[in-house]
Write a structure and sequence with these properties.
There is one protein chain. By secondary structure, this protein is α/β, with parallel strands linked by helices. The protein has 14 helices and 16 strands.
Amino acid sequence: MKRYPFRKPLLSVALVAGLATSTFGIPSSSFAASQVETSVLTKEDQKIVQSVNVNNIYSHISRLSSQPRVAGTPAEYNAVQYIQQKFSSYGYNVQIQPFTFEAYVPPTTLSLDIKDDNTKYTPQALTYTGNGQATGELQYVGLGTENDVKDLDLTGKIALIERGNISFAEKVLNAAKKGAEAVIIYNNEDGELNGTLGGANDAYVPALSLPKDVGEKLAKKLQDGETLNAEVAVEGSKLETRTSHNVIATKKASNQKKDTGEIVFVGAHHDSVEGAPGANDDASGVAVTLELARVMAKAKTDTELRFVTFGAEENGLIGSTKYVDSLGQNDIFRTRAMFQLDMVGSKDAGDLVMNTVSGQPNTVTDIAGDASERLNGERTPYGQGDRSDHVPFAEVGIPSALFIHEPTEPWYHTPDDTIDKISKEKLQDVAEIVGAGVYDIAKIDRVTPNVKKPKPMKNVSKEVQDVK
């Protein structure tokens, strides 16, 4: 697949030399200079291209992905401290926002045994699964919709369900209402199924997942009339109160006389799932956010920039929801755009897309689309997606978009999400597109909408603690 077909070499060595140091006063990246045809770029684009250093981004990923960063653990807080230190070193006013949440602790015992079957099964537990042991006949119930189970009696049985159409939680609840003692959901695409039921519910029965090939073999045997009996055990899963943190770095407009009063956000999440180093998910997004903060630190801007990394994204967008809840109506009204970076570096994922909650274009997709057309000769496509921290911003009316490569890599949410799977080319591309888009909004002396500047409101959350 050709991912970046429109990148062209520079026309001359002299031109490269002339741009060796950007007008931001930051050493340039030779990686970028060797790939972009400067004649098609604006001078502002050239500033971004020449300032972004992909080796910095890669170094951040290496540091952050040295171990899993599960929300509310010491490892996640180590990441928070690292991010805060980097923002501070660039000259930003940095704040740490702590928040508590109910964390799901995975089961200590997890097993699946099919009688009269020599296959060894290694299921995954769906997050928030119920605990318990179940022994019973395995029954295939399709997609597990209300229509699929309406005429079934699953009392004492274990339901085998295919992924798709409705949420995992609905599948489990539909089967449980019909008497199922446990539920096994198998993937509808290659790879492990790492799913969540979305939150705790006493009505959940033990819920496991299997890869597509394993689940399809079991389903075929059942559809062919074979009887299979299964034993399921899930023990030790629980909820516990933990503390996570958001990190907020703020840069006010460079010239107060030309301050538009607007805000632009760039965000990513610094936590990962249990057992996963999270090099791509989402050390890659954090690393690009840090590098763009470094690049923008000395840029002349007429707009307030906020670079935010969120905690507990993997637990249900908790950190970003807490942060948006802490914003006053003044800040919400003033916000022009929110750029969310999540999983932006895997060499084995698909192409870059911009996802909005509605699936419709907005300020972010328009501006970043223009930037990618200048940089790559084609517009980055947009689509619908609501799986990251842009969602709480969109829900209060802020134009927001998620930058991600789709389809995702095979080792998403696994121990194999390591730095050796990271593509510097993809990191550079995303950093340039988002950087050019952000600077296009924030650069000084641009023509701004005739919007009356609102008066400041004194409603800053007491949970936000200054560390600088």
